[in-house]
Every structure is written in structure tokens, then in C-alpha cells.
UniProtKB/TrEMBL annotation:
Pfam families: RNase_PH, RNase_PH_C. InterPro entries: ExoRNase_PH_dom1, ExoRNase_PH_dom2, ExoRNase_PH_dom2_sf, PNPase/RNase_PH_dom_sf, Ribosomal_Su5_D2-typ_SF, RNase_PH, RNase_PH_bac-type, RNase_PH_CS. Homohexameric ring arranged as a trimer of dimers. Residues 10-139, 158-223 form the Exoribonuclease phosphorolytic domain. NCBIfam families: RNasePH. Belongs to the RNase PH family. The keyword Transmembrane does not apply. Keywords: Nucleotidyltransferase, RNA-binding, rRNA processing, Transferase, tRNA processing, tRNA-binding. This is Ribonuclease PH. Its EC number is 2.7.7.56.
Length: 237
């Protein structure tokens, strides 16, 4: 039995509320159970120096957690410096979103996706990727509506979910009690069409074999398909 009482292949309740901030070109609040993340997309008519005059755009991401997103207060990273974990996660988010962006179609502009965790209960990087795609989709929709771009630069949906071995069983969408006790856990970033962008798997107190990896990937595919349904409901596409 999972601590939450969910079935082995059952996702936490998912909701995505759009346009939650006034100023960002795209924004949403994604809730994956008790993990809540605000994602905003900011459009800038510029690119990094190494991309200037190449006719290509850029998508990047930043990630952070509010001091009381967890059980105890964390010191703000603005005060103590950015941790290696934060840097790794925001690079993952950026890579994941860029995987389904036609940068030529985007043109010479940058979209920065900020993911701020306001409450954490496991799977914050996965929720950030899933919600980050929604914010990105909304920002690009505004570009297209304004006629600034003609061809849609987003080639597919992108979503992510965690899976792992908990109490010897393969489970989908780990919450914190499961994540902290899992013998194996992983994060799977997939496209809406089922292609893989990134898989992060780690053994922590246990090992896993090829068949178990395949089983976890099957679970991840099921979870991502449900997340894509939520993305489509939120954005209308």
C-alpha cells in the first residue's frame, strides 16, 4: 500500500490554472498533489551574445524554491548562493523545453521560463517542466496572435513525471514520503508523441534490472499522457 493510498499506476490529482500573474506573457500555477509551482514565461526581443545575427531564438529556464516550500524554512538562495541542485534542475528544465522548439521559427528572441516552487511534496522538477511548457505555449500564442511569428515554433508537448521502486513495487508519480524511501527513483521527460527527451535514474539502496526499467518507462508514458491531457485542457491546444 502506498502512503497516499493510490494505486501503483495512479497519478496525484493534477490541475493547471493559467494567467495567474498580470505581467508575464505566459503563466500558470500547476498543482501535482501537494506540489505547487508557479511558472512564468517572459518574452525578450534579444538573444544571448553568441546567438546574435543568426536568426535563431533561445529558450532558457530558472528554478527556485520559496523558503517555506518545505517542512522547515530554507534560507533564500539570493543570500547564500545558488546550490548545485538548483543549477542542475534549471538546466534540465531548459534542455527539456528546447527539445521541442524550432528555434528558427521562433526568430531572434528569447523566452525565459521561471519556475518557482511555493509548496514541495516531491516531483518539483517534473511539475516545473510540465507547467513550464504551458507558460511557454501561452507566450508563443501571444506572439502568433500579434503576427510576430507565422510558423508555430512548438513542435510537440513536453511533460515529465517521476517513477520508482517503493517497497519493492514499481510506482508512478512519487510524493515526498515515497521519494525519501524509494530504493530506485527516476525522472522521465517525454514528448506528447511519446519520444524521450531525458531519463534520470538513480539506485539508492537497491538496484534495478532492464525489465524494471522498461516497466518504469511504461508507467512514465502513462503518466505523461495524462499530463498532456491536462496541458491541452489548460491551453486549448
Amino acid at each position: 500500500m502506498r502512503p497516499s493510498g493510490r494505486k501503483l499506476d495512479e497519478m496525484r490529482p493534477i490541475s493547471i490554472e493559467t494567467d495567474v500573474t498580470r505581467h508575464a506573457e505566459g503563466s500558470c500555477l500547476i498543482r501535482c498533489g501537494d506540489t505547487h509551482v508557479i511558472c512564468t514565461a517572459t518574452l525578450e526581443e534579444r538573444v544571448p551574445p553568441w546567438l546574435r545575427n543568426k536568426g535563431q531564438g533561445w529558450v532558457t529556464a530558472e528554478y527556485g524554491m520559496l523558503p517555506r516550500a518545505t517542512h522547515t524554512r530554507m534560507q533564500r538562495e539570493a543570500k547564500r548562493g545558488q546550490s548545485g541542485r538548483t543549477q542542475e534542475i534549471q538546466r534540465l528544465i531548459g534542455r527539456s523545453l528546447r527539445a521541442c522548439v524550432d528555434r528558427n521559427a521562433l526568430g531572434e528572441r528569447q523566452i525565459s521560463v521561471d519556475c518557482d516552487v511555493i509548496q514541495a511534496d516531491g516531483g518539483t522538477r517534473c511539475a516545473s517542466i510540465t507547467g513550464g511548457w504551458v507558460a511557454l505555449r501561452l507566450a508563443i500564442d501571444k506572439l502568433m496572435k500579434a503576427g510576430d511569428i507565422v510558423t508555430d515554433p512548438l513542435t510537440d508537448h513536453v511533460a515529465a513525471v517521476s517513477c520508482g521502486l517503493y517497497a519493492g513495487q514499481q510506482v508512478l508519480d512519487l510524493d515526498y514520503p515515497e521519494d525519501s524511501e524509494a530504493g530506485v527513483d527516476g525522472n522521465f521527460v517525454l514528448t506528447g508523441s511519446g519520444r524521450m527527451i531525458e531519463v534520470q535514474m538513480s539506485a539508492e539502496g537497491a538496484t534495478f534490472d532492464r525489465d524494471q526499467l522498461t516497466g518504469l518507462l511504461d508507467l512514465a508514458s502513462k503518466g505523461v499522457s495524462e499530463l498532456v491531457v491536462a496541458q491541452k485542457a489548460a491551453t486549448g491546444r
